[in-house]
Design a protein that fits this description.
With 397 residues, the chain is an alpha/beta fold. It has 2 domains: 217 residues, TPP-binding domain (Rossmann fold, 3-Layer(aba) Sandwich), CATH 3.40.50; 114 residues, Immunoglobulin-like. Helix content is 19%, strand content 29%. Strands 4, 5, 6, 7, 11, 12, 13, 16, 19 and 20 form a 10-stranded mixed β-sheet that branches. The protein has a 6-stranded parallel β-sheet with strand order 3-2-1-8-9-10, with helices on both faces. The protein has a 4-stranded antiparallel β-sheet with strand order 15-14-17-18, with no helix packed on it. It is elongated. The protein starts with 7 loop residues before the first helix and ends in an 8-residue tail after the last strand. 38% of the residues are buried.
Length: 397
Amino acid sequence: MAHGISDTECKKEYFDSQSELDAKLDQLAQWIKESRHLIVFTGAGVSTSTGIPDFRSAMDTVLPTGPGAWELRDNKTSRSKKAVVIDDMQKAIPSPSHMALVELQRRGILKCLISQNCDGLHLRSGMNPAHLAELHGNMNLEICKKCKARYLRDFDTDTGRLNHSTGRRCDKPECRGQLRDSIINFGENLPEDELNKAFDHAEKADVCLVLGSSLTVTPAADIPRRVAKRKKKLIIGNLQRTPLYNRATMNIHAFSDTIMQGLMERLNISIPPWILRRRVLVTCQNDSDKHKTTITIEGRDPDNAEIPFTLFESIQVIIGDRAKEEFTREPFVFEVSDKNVHPITVRLNFFGHYNEIPFELYYVNVKNIPKEEQFYLFYNPLKGEWHKTTDESDLPV
């Protein structure tokens, strides 16, 4: 079955004139200023400027990423070598649209972001998961089949298997259940909690802005449809016309970044630069009977400390003049003798999607390591610098 758009008319791409776009953005900004419950619904088109192709753009699309994946399949052809496509989605840098949405959420203007995307960019951009509903999963998230514990990874967990098994097990000793990727394939049910969250907000929304979605996949597309049915304002930003074209209060034909940059200017809100956010937990447990101290180092979700986040490819531990000892499985656990008086250096080696340099933790000796230490590491990819802080809002400029 073809997943591309079969109607030739719906494949056409339209662009508003500058005067039309200005008038529409002026009106949209006013609606948002007056809004009490703004929601945003995003599709693949919000990520094309990061180098991630969409699914349904036509063969003659103006997008640098080229035709959509299903359009290429339906036409039995492959992507042109001229297409501007990133070779690894883990390296994609959140777009101005992603960062604008983060800032609107931080200011309390955006109540919920509902996304069909599984590229992980909304979480990576800094969107608070409490205000995010990922309807089709997240390539960086796997879930325990048995206890439903969630694990974030700084690598792709999607194996493409029908049973979704990643081959890893739950870290909890009392569980050890099978971990499964969270990607939703065609024909599979959407996650009930995410879907319920999305529809709950659709029932409250007075303004719904759609960005980069063809609105052809249900039940996801039923969410903005619900807003229109309630006779609230539905604004669709997309190059192609969608099935909800005639139901929308306004249709904007422009790139998602163009819409969001113009909107933020009218709201007089700056779009923040993207900063890579990491949270690290270090725990230290002493066994006086064995004269040993066990040190554990692990990543945690920056927005929810209860969720483990695999951040490091490896760590290297250097104690005094001793040779480096390398550990490759997170959480990293190693022992140090209580009698050891030498300094301890722990080098954290990241996966390097953004050419992150290693970060070193230094302790005068084992007694200098706190029983529990939790801190943030913020990385500016343009400067190539890490910033360590205990304040989650202390983002470097």
